[in-house]
Fold this sequence. Notes:
Blueprint: H1 5-14, H2 26-29, H3 35-42, H4 45-51, E1 55-58, H5 65-71, H6 77-98, H7 126-136, H8 145-152, E2 156-160, E3 163-166, H9 167-184, H10 200-210, H11 225-231, H12 242-245, H13 268-275, H14 281-287, H15 291-297
Parallel strand pairs: 1-2
Antiparallel strand pairs: 2-3
Helix pairs in contact: 4-8, 6-7, 6-9, 9-10, 11-14
Amino acid sequence: MEVGINLHLALHQLRYETSSRVVWADAVCINQSDVEERSEQVALMGEIFQKAYQVVVWLGSEPASHTRNAVGASDDNDEISSQAFAMICSIVDTWARETYRVDIGRPQYRRQGSTQDAYDTIPLDRPHWEKLKPLFSNSWFTRMWVVQEIALARRATAVWAKSEISWELIGLAAAIIRTNWRYIGPWGGHDGIGSHRVPVGVMNAYFMYRISSFRSNLDPLRFSFCELLALTKQFECQEKHDKIFALLGLKTSDWAKLFIVVDYSRPLDDLWRSVGSPSDTSLEAAFGDPSLRSSRRNPRHSQK
Length: 304
């Protein structure tokens, strides 16, 4: 069978040279053109990722095109990925040495008086950030389906070119960067990175890290399914139904009350109304579809 170039590269990179390896890939294991089969299999996705021995985060074999042009030809891919992962390890190692707690909800590198000691030893000035930018600019960090994959994984490994790293280290580094951005960004001195807004890739990585099952040492986040939809509105998917279906494996505060059947043939506005009440503006924000506003104002009963 024919597969896309990205999956082809992933399978080639992940295979063992001397032994077999079982890999589950939705593009191969699910007939994407069969709506009925796709609906049935997508309903099992949460269970699949939860029971998997390991979830592989395939970041591709090449960095973003703008980075490749700036840094050099594609034969520099291994160096770019290894430098980014080395920076991840450096940030986490520094944080571990400087703090003796696992509370990433407050800044760990505080400003002392009027000096710039807020920066302390965290290695994230502009040159360091340039090494990390290709990683957090990767389109993987914007995909809707990866939220559930990471949140439910017992173990996740990120693979980029020929480099590998535990995804938990990427998530923890993102949490450290996000928490300390105001000190290491444009206000922090030391050649500020240039923007007061935390990069989307960093925020998305932090969010996935925060809701992941392996973060058992932190208080669990509590939110409804509609709130989860609003929190994930920046993630992208080709099929708008997946804004909902891609999150069904995550247990929210109202999880027991949700009775959503995965059905791609179901009209989107009907699916939208089944999730929340007409007053739930978070749904409208998540879908970003103005046509749903009229559906909310003039609800109609679906035909059985």
